[in-house]
């Protein structure tokens, strides 16, 4: 039998690439949205799977795309269960507010389990080259990463938030497997603090620069060129230009910092002890794409959304790469012990990506 | 005959291959050298539905997969075997420009209807069911923010303040919550100038500058009645809920939180700037007319004050922000109020 690709065990570099197109995704998105509206939400499960399949199927490493295998029917069942629980909660809360409190407590305890179920659902139904991913997070790990650390972070007025972020990234990355082989990331919390310090520093400098440039220019025009005397009342134009710039800075901060931390986490990730991942996204470019996407989506009353998603995915994937040390075709799907049916369906509901 | 790649069962190892449908029943996958890699009854092979230009997956019972980008080829096979086109209709709708245009119109219409009718209705229900102590908390915060940022101490004499309070009490006693349900605060307007506004918990703020414009008791009673109606109908809370619901709606529709976190920074800022809706104003004016009539006061006097305010604020070249700019289409409202006077 002739072998497909790499014959030897030589190191090879694979680039990630997103080959989806905005116009193609727009048609899928709008038609599925319309079908969801017509069916009063029932079709949303199919829409979700089609969207996920389109994005996975358009994401390539080398010459192979990812795939997504979840069954829309199970997602529909999961959503129905969630809706039933929500109605039960509303009714019981109307009967006696104490039930509502009890339910909230239950949800609190169920939250780590929901995080795991959701990540596991997503991983198990994602494949690359016919081999499945998996997620192995345990209840208490999720509790620590998603409940204890954030509480510690906020109760110290954000001082521990960078450490909490690292704990979450560890939980997410180190519990993922592909073909039963682990992903491992390792980086010090000090580096996260360093990135946060850089982000805050740049933010303050940029804000000062905006202030100086906008009001300095105005002062120059008003003072030197037009009147010959200085009027301390800034014009509406200067104030609105400055406000616009500050808004831009505020909106850029989170995506830029997020990008730097993702770069750090991904670039320190090793799969199966030998294949290295690398991410070289520019925080400034990601911030620019995110902010302009938000503005354009708003200006087009939402219709730019598909292009926005594709545009971001294209950039992110173009900066990801995999340094493979040896063959990638030796991997085989592990035999997975079944997750309980209800667990799996509930897991499908909260499939907002909790991830990086 | 379609070209593709054959993946061994559950494995990442693949072989360049070709698939062929034999006499409409059997699917056979061969290597490029002609050796048979897999053979199975076509109806037992799981075939993924067509979607955009992504790869099609033909999965055998043993976990082997034949993967191909020849979507038309697979569709031909399905047709030849008379197999049901699994989700094929969705793909055809996605590829037809006609359904795309129809979908855009449908989504646009439903979206617009939702934002025009659905969202205000939901926000109103939430607003009407907001517990009194929550409304008080929100009002406390709003009031202390406005007080420190804009408002000054009132410079009205104690006698005049007393008079304003008496007039306000008279109006309040004719309103649903009664005299103790509302409270009048008098402040120097500062940049807010001649102005009056209501807080969700029943506090109504009036500025010295507005009081200075009043020539007749009925006039200011009209303003009080109008603001009290905003309280009773929870218009303020309704706007707050509208602003905070929009990001939640976007999250549900797109299933995507990252976009929302960006939009949610922009949206409240835009909405808070926007005025009460015209419908809210009409309701408040109608209520005011009702209350004034019950009190035996003349609604047309309220219209006189509006006209005077309008002339003062907009007489100059640029219309300065104030009570008027918060209340759209003043001329229409003045007409409306004067007409209401005539009706019984
Ligand atoms: Zn009003």
Could you report the average pLDDT of chain A, rounded to the nearest whole number?
Answer: 84
Largest interface here, residues on each chain? A-B, 60 and 55 residues
- Helix/strand order of chain B: EEEEEEEHHHHEHEEEHHHHHHH
What's the total helix number of chain A?
A: 11
Round the mean pLDDT of chain B to the nearest integer and report it: 83
Q: Shape of chain B, please?
A: rod-shaped
What strand order characterises the main sheet of chain A?
1-2-3-4-5-6-7-8-9-10
Q: Into how many domains do the coordinates of chain B divide? A: 2
Rg of chain B from C-alpha positions?
34 Å
Please bin the fraction of helical residues of chain B: 55-70%
Number of helices of chain B: 12
Strand content of chain A: 5-15%
Main sheet strand line-up of chain B: 4-3-2-1-7-6-5
**Tell me about the biggest sheet of chain A?**
10 strands, antiparallel, barrel
* Fraction in beta strands of chain B: 15-25%
Looking at the chains present, what oligomeric state does this protein adopt? heterodimer
Summarize the structure.
The complex is a heterodimer of chains A (356) and B (344). With 356 residues, chain A is α+β, with helices and mostly antiparallel strands.
Polypeptide structure, described:
The complex is a heterodimer of chains A (356) and B (344). The two termini of chain A are 40 Å apart. In chain A, strands 1-2-3-4-5-6-7-8-9-10 form a ten-stranded antiparallel beta barrel, surrounded by five helices. In chain A, 34% of the residues are buried. Chain A has a domain at 72-124. With 356 residues, chain A is α+β, with helices and mostly antiparallel strands. Helices cover 63% and strands 13% of the residues of chain A. Chain A is globular and about 75 Å long. Chain A has helices at residues 22-38, 44-58, 72-95, 97-124, 139-155, 161-174, 189-226, 236-267, 283-299, 305-318, 341-349; strands spanning 11-18, 59-61, 64-68, 126-128, 131-135, 176-178, 181-185, 269-271, 275-279, 320-325. Chain B is of the alpha+beta class. Chain B folds into two domains: 2-88, Pleckstrin-homology domain (PH domain)/Phosphotyrosine-binding domain (PTB) (PH-domain like, Roll); 121-340, no CATH class. Chain B is 55% helix and 15% strand. Chain B has twelve helices and eleven strands. Chain B has helices spanning 71-80, 88-95, 97-128, 132-149, 158-173, 208-213, 217-232, 235-254, 257-273, 278-295, 299-314, 330-342, and strands at residues 2-7, 14-22, 26-31, 36-41, 46-47, 56-59, 65-68, 152-153, 183-188, 196-198, 203-207. In chain B, the strands form two sheets. Chain B has a seven-stranded antiparallel beta sheet with strand order 4-3-2-1-7-6-5. In chain B, helix 3 (97-128) packs antiparallel against helix 8 and helix 7 packs across helix 10 (278-295). The termini of chain B are far apart. Residues 316-322 of chain B have low confidence and may be disordered. At the A-B interface, helix 1, helix 2, helix 8, helix 9 and helix 10 of A face strand 2, helix 2, helix 3, helix 8 and helix 9 of B. Bound molecules: zinc ion (ZN). Zinc ion (ZN) binds next to helix 7 and helix 10 of chain B.
């Amino acid at each position: 039998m002739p072998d497909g690709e790499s014959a030897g065990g030589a190191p090879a570099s694979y680039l990630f690439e997103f080959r989806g197109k905005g116009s193609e995704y727009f048609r899928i998105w709008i038609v599925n949205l319309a079908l969801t509206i017509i069916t009063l939400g029932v079709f949303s499960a199919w829409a979700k799977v089609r969207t996920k399949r389109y994005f996975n199927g358009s994401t390539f490493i080398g010459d192979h795309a990812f795939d997504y295998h979840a069954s829309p029917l199970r997602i529909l069942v999961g959503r129905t269960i969630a809706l039933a629980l929500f109605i039960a909660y509303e009714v019981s809360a109307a009967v006696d507010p104490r039930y509502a409190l009890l339910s909230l407590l239950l949800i609190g305890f169920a939250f780590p389990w929901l995080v795991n179920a959701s990540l596991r659902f997503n991983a198990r139904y994602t494949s690359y080259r016919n081999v499945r991913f998996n997620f192995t997070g345990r209840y208490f790990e999720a509790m620590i990463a998603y409940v204890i650390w954030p509480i510690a972070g906020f109760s110290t007025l954000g001082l521990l938030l960078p450490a909490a972020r690292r704990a979450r990234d560890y939980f997410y990355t180190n519990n993922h497997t592909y073909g039963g082989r682990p992903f491992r990331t390792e980086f010090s919390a000090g580096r996260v603090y360093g990135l946060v310090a850089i982000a805050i520093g740049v933010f303050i400098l940029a804000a000062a620069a905006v202030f100086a440039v906008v009001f300095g220019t105005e002062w120059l025009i008003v003072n030197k060129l037009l009147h010959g005397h200085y009027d301390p009342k800034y014009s509406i134009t200067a104030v609105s230009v400055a406000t616009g710039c500050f808004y831009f800075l505020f909106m850029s901060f989170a995506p830029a910092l997020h990008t730097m931390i993702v770069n750090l986490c991904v670039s320190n990730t090793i799969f199966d002890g030998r294949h290295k991942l690398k991410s070289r996204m520019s925080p400034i470019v990601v911030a620019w794409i995110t902010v302009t996407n938000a503005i354009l989506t708003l200006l087009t009353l939402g219709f730019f959304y598909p292009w926005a998603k594709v545009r971001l995915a294209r950039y992110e994937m173009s900066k990801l790469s995999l340094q493979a040390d040896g063959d990638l075709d030796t991997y085989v799907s592990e035999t997975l012990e079944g997750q309980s049916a209800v667990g799996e369906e509930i897991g499908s509901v909260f499939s907002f990506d909790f991830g990086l | 005959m379609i070209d593709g790649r054959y993946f061994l069962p559950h494995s990442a190892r693949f072989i360049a291959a070709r698939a062929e449908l034999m006499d409409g029943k059997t699917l056979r996958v061969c290597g490029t050298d002609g050796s048979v890699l897999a053979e199975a009854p076509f109806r037992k092979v799981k075939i993924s539905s067509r979607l955009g230009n992504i790869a099609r997956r033909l999965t055998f019972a043993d976990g082997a997969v034949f993967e191909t980008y020849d979507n038309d080829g697979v569709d031909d096979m399905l047709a030849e075997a008379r197999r049901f086109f699994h989700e094929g209709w969705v793909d055809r709708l996605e590829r037809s420009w006609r359904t795309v245009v129809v979908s855009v119109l449908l989504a646009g219409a439903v979206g617009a209807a939702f934002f025009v009718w659905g969202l205000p209705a939901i926000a109103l229900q939430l607003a009407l069911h907001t517990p009194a102590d929550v409304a008080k908390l929100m009002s406390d915060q709003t009031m202390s923010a406005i007080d420190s940022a804009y408002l000054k101490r009132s410079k009205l004499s104690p006698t005049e303040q007393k008079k304003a309070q008496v007039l306000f009490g008279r109006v309040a006693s004719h309103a649903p919550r009664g005299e103790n349900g509302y409270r009048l605060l008098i402040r120097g307007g500062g940049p807010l100038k001649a102005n009056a506004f209501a807080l969700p918990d029943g506090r109504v703020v009036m500025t010295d500058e507005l009081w200075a414009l009043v020539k007749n008791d009925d006039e200011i009673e009209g303003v009080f009645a109008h603001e009290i109606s905003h309280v009773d109908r929870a218009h303020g809370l309704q706007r707050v809920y509208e602003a905070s619901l929009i990001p939640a709606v976007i999250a549900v529709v797109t299933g995507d939180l990252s976009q929302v976190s960006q939009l949610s920074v922009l949206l409240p800022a835009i909405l808070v700037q926007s005025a009460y809706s015209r419908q809210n104003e009409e309701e408040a004016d109608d209520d005011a007319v009702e209350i004034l009539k019950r009190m035996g006061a003349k609604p047309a006097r309220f219209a006189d004050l509006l006209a005077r305010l309008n002339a003062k604020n907009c007489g100059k070249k640029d219309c300065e922000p104030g009570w008027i700019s918060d209340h759209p289409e003043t001329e229409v409202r003045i007409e409306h109020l004067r007409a209401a006077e005539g009706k019984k």
